[in-house]
UniProtKB/TrEMBL annotation:
A Pfam match: Glycos_transf_2
Protein name per UniProt: Glycosyl transferase
Keywords: Transferase
InterPro entries for the chain: Glyco_trans_2-like, Nucleotide-diphossugar_trans, TPR-like_helical_dom_sf, TPR_rpt
UniProt-listed CDD domains: Beta4Glucosyltransferase (cd02511)
GO terms for MF: transferase activity
Organism phylogeny: Bacteria, Bacillati, Bacillota, Bacilli, Bacillales
Glycosyltransferase 2-like domain ranges (all copies): 5-92
Origin species: Paenibacillus antarcticus
Length: 367
């Protein structure tokens, strides 16, 4: 059986660190915690779990801090997490099986990263990350902000998920780092351009964000998933600027990079629904329901768009044109995912009432 070092970098994580470490402590053989300047009880909490607590002077570079943490590890494999991540009980069971059975020839194991949930516990946002890597390969982190782990060799996809459960977020930190680097005249990579644009979008600086998304796409060197995501985020920018035509064009632009994704079909369907072009809306929402979801996709996925959402919207569309049977059937499909959703329950009651009246009228007609 392999051995595992857990590596974290932390700063002022007293609200989340205990939750994170308690969820994974029994799964790993060593815990490495690198503190970049905490002023709260983070270090006190860390010492409950490990003696391997190190200080690292913050130099505005996340990759440097993570690489330092990796350099302290001594076990066969390195698992990395953030302090606001947790391994849920069901995933801890899967993780234990993975640890017991992993072939030592594997260089990296990817795990799902669940980033968002709806009020019914369904995952709404997810991607994959290289999460468990062989220490002897000396894989390195790259990028001062939105850093990534550069890996190679034999990589397998696991069914283990890490769940992101943030309590607080330093909303200006990453933007300020990018602004400083840009002001200093640093040459941005395509990846930097993309993530800088994301930070601008998050701060509702729509016009600047558009500029940097366009710069990113113009390089023609971006990862395909980032290219597709940039089209969606351009749509978000134009939505914020109330430019509906550009919002639609940006969504359609995503088809230049790959076959249609459910997220974009739903976005386009909503555009036509808002314009009361119901048949067009039905086409795009129906398309979303028929697209196969890639469970191993590395890009961000809004899972609502490939599960309940297009069916609920089709219910609305068919109701508007008086096809109550199809409206009911799609509402029932949505109910499979959100059985306690008040709006879906209300739709069910409303449509059953209409269908019952239609049936009574048919039965009452003379032969």
């Amino acid at each position: 059986m392999i051995t595992i070092s857990l590596c974290l970098i932390v700063k002022n994580e007293e609200q989340t660190l205990d939750r994170c470490l308690s969820s994974v402590a029994k799964l790993v053989d060593e815990i490495i915690i690198v503190d970049t300047g905490s002023t709260d009880l983070t270090k006190t909490i860390a010492k409950k779990y490990t003696e391997k607590l190190y200080d690292f002077k913050w130099i505005q570079d996340f990759a440097a801090a993570r690489n330092y943490a990796f350099s302290q590890a001594t076990k066969d494999y390195i698992l990395w997490l953030d302090a606001d991540d947790v391994v849920k009980e069901e995933d801890a069971i899967r993780f234990k099986v993975l640890k017991d059975t992993l072939d030592p020839s594997v260089d990296s194991v990817t795990m799902k990263y669940h980033l968002g949930f709806d009020s019914f516990g369904n995952v709404t946002s997810s991607n994959r990350r290289n999460r468990l890597v062989k220490r002897s390969k000396q894989f390195r982190w790259i990028g001062a902000v939105h850093e990534y782990l550069e890996v190679g060799g034999t990589i397998i996809n696991s069914d283990v998920a890490v769940t992101h459960s943030s309590i607080h977020h330093d909303s200006d930190r990453n933007l300020n780092i990018y602004e400083q680097r840009y002001t200093n005249g640093e040459q941005f990579s395509p990846r930097d351009l993309y993530y800088f644009a994301n930070e601008l979008l998050d701060h509702r600086m729509y016009e600047r964000a558009i500029t940097f998304y366009e710069k990113f796409l113009d390089t023609k060197e971006g990862w395909i998933e980032d290219n597709i995501s940039a089209c969606g985020k351009l749509s978000d920018c134009y939505h914020g600027l109330n430019n509906k035509q550009k919002e639609l064009e940006s969504a359609l632009r995503s088809f230049e990079y790959d076959s249609p994704r459910a997220e974009f079909c739903c976005r386009i369907g909503y555009h036509f629904l808002q314009k009361d072009q119901i048949n067009n809306a039905i086409f795009w929402y129906n398309t979303a329901t028929k697209l196969e979801r890639n469970a191993n996709s590395w890009g961000f996925q809004n899972l609502s768009c490939s599960t309940w959402l297009p069916h609920l919207q089709l219910c609305v569309c068919y109701d508007r044109i008086g096809n109550y049977q199809l409206a009911y059937e799609h509402n029932e499909e949505a109910r499979k995912y959100r059985s306690d959703d008040p709006s879906i329950i209300q739709n069910k009651t409303y449509l059953e009432s209409i269908l019952h009246k239609v049936e009574e009228n048919v039965q009452g007609e003379p032969l």
